[in-house]
Amino acid sequence: MLTPVATRPAATSHAASWAPRQAAHCSTCAMRHLCMPQGLAPEALSRLESVICAARPVKRGEALFREGDAFDNLYAVRSGSLKTVATRHDGREQVTGLHLAGEALGLDGICDDTHPRTAIALEDSSVCVIPYSALKALCSEAGSMQLRMHKLMSEQIVRETSQTMLLGSLNAEERVAAFLLDVSSRYLKRGYSPSEFNLRMTREDIGSYLGMTLETVSRTLSKFQKRGLIEMQGRHVQIVDFDGLHHV
């Protein structure tokens, strides 16, 4: 496990400017089966650990990076969760992603060397900081690392394509059901209960993510409760009827 750093910079600072270099310990991290080390040979894993900076804490509501910031690092969520937000042409913000422990952040900054979205912590979280220049050099030397990067990029494409299809082809109830089932399956992969979990996103965030109004999200969740599909108390969700939710 990485040792959290006690201090942190302002939200606009880059992690590389503050994080002391120290060896990461991916091999003992609980999220290694989901994160960058997945499938790497011991030698490649050791080299990856040598380029990762110490974990950076990100307080709830703090921006890890902002839209327009220069792209220097990739990030892997070590604990907690973050949302990504994009600014639309009319100035409104739209939630574009939910990122849980073991998932990479910042891949979309590679294209133009700037971050096209803002990443904000939904709860007190921590991320591993991976300098892209060092990672790129490692990829050129280790084929297994290059393959892993390709897979991470492919996973992001699949997620964004699925999100586009969800927004374009499903009605409100289907969108909310798909969202709950997606969060459930992701928690299961992390060893947590798939039937009981806390929604870190607010209902307003969920609406923004699903292309719905806050009122529609609240109304849909209430319908699901009345039909015995879920139980909710605040942000705590219990999925009572998985089959029913799948068949919404």
From TrEMBL:
GO terms for cellular component: cytosol. One of its GO terms (molecular function) is DNA binding. CDD domains: CAP_ED, HTH_CRP. SUPFAM superfamilies: cAMP-binding domain-like (SSF51206), Winged helix' DNA-binding domain (SSF46785). InterPro entries: cNMP-bd_dom, cNMP-bd_dom_sf, Env_Response_Regulators, HTH_CRP, RmlC-like_jellyroll, Tscrpt_reg_HTH_Crp-type_CS, WH-like_DNA-bd_sf, WH_DNA-bd_sf. Keywords: DNA-binding, Transcription, Transcription regulation. PROSITE patterns: CNMP_BINDING_3 (PS50042), HTH_CRP_1 (PS00042), HTH_CRP_2 (PS51063). PANTHER family: CRP FAMILY TRANSCRIPTIONAL REGULATORY PROTEIN, FUMARATE AND NITRATE REDUCTION REGULATORY PROTEIN. This is Crp/Fnr family transcriptional regulator.
